[in-house]
Amino acid sequence: MRPFSIKLTWRLFLGPATALIFCAPVLTAQVRSVPAPRRDTVRARPDTTRRDTTAADSTRPKELIKWNETDSVMQALMSRQGYTATRYQGDQAVFNAQSHTLQLRGKKAGVSREQTVLVGDSIVYSDSTKIIVARGDTVILRDPEQQAADVIARGRMAYNVELHRGVVENITTQIAQTGENWFVGGKDAAFVSDTTRGRETAFYVRSGTITSCDDSIPDYHFRANEIKMVSKHIMVARPAVLYIGDVPVMWLPFIFQDMRSGRRSGVLTPRFGVSELFRNSPTYRRHIENLGYYFAISDYMDAQLALDWRSGSRPSSGDPGWVRLNGELQYRWLDRFMTGRFAAYRHAQRDGSSNTGISWYHDQGFSQDTHLHTDINYVTNTFIQRTTTFNPSQVLATISSHANYTTKFGPASLNLGGSNSQHPGRKEVDRTFPVFSLSAPAIAVTRWMDWTPAFSFQTNQQLNLDQTGEFTYRFFTNPQGVKDSVALKRNARQTSSSFSTPLRIGGFSLGNSFTMTDNETDAPQTFVIQDPNDSSVKTPRVFAKTFDTSIDWQPSFSLPSLIHGSLNLSPLLTFVNVDGGHGYWVRSQLSNGQFVHQSKRIQTGLSASPTLFALFPGFGSVTRFRHSITPSISYTYAPTGNLSTEFLRATNRSRQGFLGSLAQNQVSLTVSHVLEAKLKSTDTSSTAEPKKVKVLSMDFSSLTYDFERARKTHRSGFTTPNLNTNIASDLIPGFRGNVSWSLYQGDVLSDTARFKPFRENIGASLTLNSQSGIFGIFTRLFGRPVPEAHPQIEKTEPSAEDALANRVASTPVAGMTSRSRQFAMPSTQGWQLTLQYSSSRQRPPTGNGVVLDENFVELQCKPLQANPIVYQQCIDQARAQASNSLPIASGISGAPFIRIPSRDNMQSSMNFHLTPKWSGTWTTNYDFQAKKFGSHNVTLQRELHDWRAIFAFTQAPNGNFAFNFFIALNAEPDLKFNYDKSTYRPIIR
Prior knowledge:
Layout: H1 6-13, E1 18-22, H2 72-78, E2 84-89, E3 92-96, E4 101-113, E5 116-126, E6 131-142, E7 151-160, E8 165-177, E9 180-194, E10 200-211, E11 220-230, E12 234-244, E13 247-252, E14 255-258, E15 266-267, H3 274-277, E16 287-298, E17 301-310, E18 322-333, E19 338-349, E20 354-365, E21 371-379, H4 382-387, H5 392-396, E22 399-409, E23 412-422, E24 429-439, E25 443-446, E26 449-451, E27 454-463, E28 473-477, E29 483-487, E30 491-500, E31 503-505, E32 508-522, E33 525-531, E34 534-543, E35 546-558, E36 570-577, E37 585-588, E38 596-597, E39 600-608, E40 612-617, E41 622-638, H6 645-650, E42 664-679, E43 692-700, E44 703-706, H7 707-713, E45 722-728, E46 736-745, E47 754-769, H8 773-781, H9 791-794, H10 803-808, E48 832-840, E49 851-853, H11 857-861, H12 868-880, E50 897-899, E51 903-913, E52 918-927, E53 932-944, E54 947-955, E55 961-969, E56 976-983
Parallel strand pairs: 1-2, 49-50
Antiparallel strand pairs: 2-4, 3-4, 4-5, 5-6, 6-7, 7-8, 8-9, 9-10, 10-11, 11-12, 12-13, 12-14, 15-16, 16-17, 17-18, 18-19, 19-20, 20-21, 21-22, 22-23, 23-24, 24-27, 25-26, 26-31, 27-30, 28-29, 30-32, 31-32, 32-35, 33-34, 35-36, 35-37, 36-39, 37-38, 39-41, 40-41, 41-42, 42-43, 42-44, 43-45, ...
């Protein structure tokens, strides 16, 4: 073959706007080589310090072929305006001048035009038709303008570089969608780039396969007769057969996948199980969820509308069947610092009952100092909301709402908000509105005086109280002359306000605060009225409405601390009320609404808070122990006081036996101690610090002893009604314990009170795992090596990725019924156990006052004793909706005593791995009083490479239970096999 001349090459450049540029090394075998110019040895050597040491970009695609460097002539030709350059490279090149056909051969033969690159074993390019035919074991085409991945062929590929069209044999390519890479292959395929639609590329494949498994032999794949893909737009295949290995398991009429980025309006994926199509039991109730549509309204807003349905055939008590319509609107404007969601649902049952729920979350920042946050949840029927849920936490969780507005006025901070709580299965509503506070940091009035004012105001309401009351019904005669009755509505309110103006003058502090509390109960109550001068005279009286108001003024004066750093002595002078349980001014229904006041007396005192510690030698891996005790000791004295008869009558007290008027000569003690161990450090560097571990930490609340009280009564001088203790240890991660005692039986200000400690509450929490400190405590103490802790295992606090925490915390009552989020696989191969124990009981009452028993379950369900099953269901339902909360307490004595049933409960949560691929979670709680489990949530998961199988069982405290089997494709969770069995336990209203 004759060599190419410059004239021929130039003619080709003057052809149809195409430049054929042959790299010098490629033409060495066929064309005379031009001697390279001798290197100029006089020229200065390049600066080696200017080398770019920046690491290569790992995100850039791998280079398909390494192009040889061109000389200055070729660079000048390639840079000419109005021409499009095509580069060729190969071990051997054959060019036919008449047909304008070029043949390239070589292990890395390549053709490049603009950004399109084609690499193969042999390439034939026709400049007339602009068609490239490449052959080889692996032919790769890369065209960034197509917005698609590389096209790989095994055999032959024909491609038109001008029209961006091609025909391929044994194609393989991949497309990215929602973070997953889908691999598409086929025996025969064609592809074309549509320039009118943003350079999108359409693929047409016959006898193709689709999979997301990147193994050389995929674990699963879909085989379809016809496949069409439009890059970053859609993928359609029909019909499709799912193969697990080489075994066909499912036939689908078609597969459709929207691969466009961003949000698009479209049909939501319905959720139903195989049992909805093929019922396996004549009593099975079909159930369908999420049948609806998604609306992409704008870049800042979207909406969803969906329908849930449960069959009403063969209805049962508590499960008549229902229809639920869900709607949700989400919005987010980043430039306006506003985001939120508004959702609502309508739940209609076949028996005529219904429920409407609303949720509104809104967060907006008006400026750096002004913010508005709302999280509102409300339902019209808490009974339906409770009986139709399967989440154990939602069955007992309160339906809470809160709103808060904060801003600043100069240095002052203003906070305005409120909250509202509903209880599942109950009519009671707890509302706190408004909550207003205004505070400011220390304001320097002068150089020697600081002023720190603060003001707060709030109102708490309890509406529709459904707890035990003396008077449940109101009896009357109706217009027909027949006696009738209606249930009484019981409401309670408490309003409180405070204003403080403390002044600090040098090292002296002058406290000055005012407080106001107003209580009102709009319900009949019986009070045992005492004679102020004769404690033996007691008269029961019923009030249709009760109220009490207390206003107090609390001045105090403190001196600078003395012996600072060791004893920390602090003198104190203040004015205190003779009756410390009430304010200076009080009024109640017993004073006919008139304010009466008590007396104040001077109280002087001295407090000290030293820190005592001792060091003890260690043993094993412990170099030293440090035991520190931090007591806070205070001594106060106040002279004898006196209370007027009017004040005693307004507070329903008797002068006889009242100890509040005695002189105060008392000592208070608060103690906290910590035992620390300093461990030997394995790091021998000089900067290494030894690790410190808190072996035991205990805090005790204040305990007060009055010497004057002990002298007058010849009994115990302790005046503290309650004592609390908190325990913690670093040896057991997550361990916390607390115990509280009631020290006196009766009113602590009465001489009839007996010092008789009674344990009221106890609580403990514990978190264990395979490397917890409890298993290494003795190993560390005796010097044996302990494996290095795994940071993920030692992390015992719940994280944001905890699926259970995300389901429980701040769960909205309305909105789209989100997919039942299954628990994530534990991040470690270990196990973790969390235990929480709580026990509460109430001291039995004494005396002859009115006692109301909150545990009226048996009385409420007594009419149903004829049917043991229904009677037991009534007992369980009443116990499940019982509350430990007390109504707002009256500020005067003699009110009825409400007895709360004891609670003794253990909650546990365990994550574990049976094998590296099998994991499980088990969450439950056990009621020791009822002697049975309240709820269960068991989940077993199997990781199947590209699939995940989940077995779950849930039993809620309301009696509902569900079982589901779920296996889904990780790359596309909507492609799944699931079996759901949900059973509603009949509930007695």
